[in-house]
Amino acid sequence: QVQLVESGGGLVQTGGSLRLSCAASGTKFSFTIMGWYRQAPGKQRELVAVMRSSGTTNYADSVKGRFTISRDNAENTVYLQMNSLEPEDTAVYYCNARYAGFSDYWGQGTQVTVSS
Predict the structure, then answer these.
(1) Are 28 and 88 in contact (CB under 8 A)?
(2) Rounded Cα gap, residues 32 and 26, in angstroms
(3) Of the candidates 103, 105, 104, 80, which has an alpha carbon nearest to the alpha carbon of residue 93?
(4) What is the mean pLDDT of each run of 10 residues along the chain (116 residues)?
């Protein structure tokens, strides 16, 4: 059974940094896509950043230049380095992983709170 476990969330002041990690277990194969989504109170879940096994990435416009996604394909681990954090980045961040043509896997979420 595939499981995704996130870590690294917390409380930080505006302008600070955090690094999220997500480790997958229960599978021997590298995911086609791994990435991060977030959901703020009263809002829909939105894409933050994703990375394919090829290395190509997509970022939400709101985080470009501030967030960097990376992954270790061999370990099925994905990271999100978040710099210059803003109060608008406050949300629960979810790790996502999928194989092409199959359903998504989701982590339990980790809270990121940015104080002004």
Answers:
(1) no
(2) 15
(3) 80
(4) 95 98 92 96 97 96 98 93 98 96 93 97
31-64 as b/e: b if 16+ CB within 10 A: bebbbbbbeeeeeeeeebbbbbeeeeeebeeebe
pLDDT at 103: 86
**Rounded to whole angstroms, how far apart are CA atoms 46 and 79?**
17
Fill in the amino acid letter for 8.
G
- Give the pLDDT confidence score for residue 101 in this predicted structure: 86
Q: Which two tokens stand for residue 58?
A: 């997509």
**The predicted structure's pLDDT at residue 58:** 98
Give every CB contact of residue 14 below 8 A, 6+ residues apart in sequence: 85, 86, 87, 114, 115, 116
Which residue has tokens 């709170």? 113
Element (H, E) at 5: strand 3-7
What backbone phi and psi angles, to 5 degrees, belong to 88?
A: -70, -10
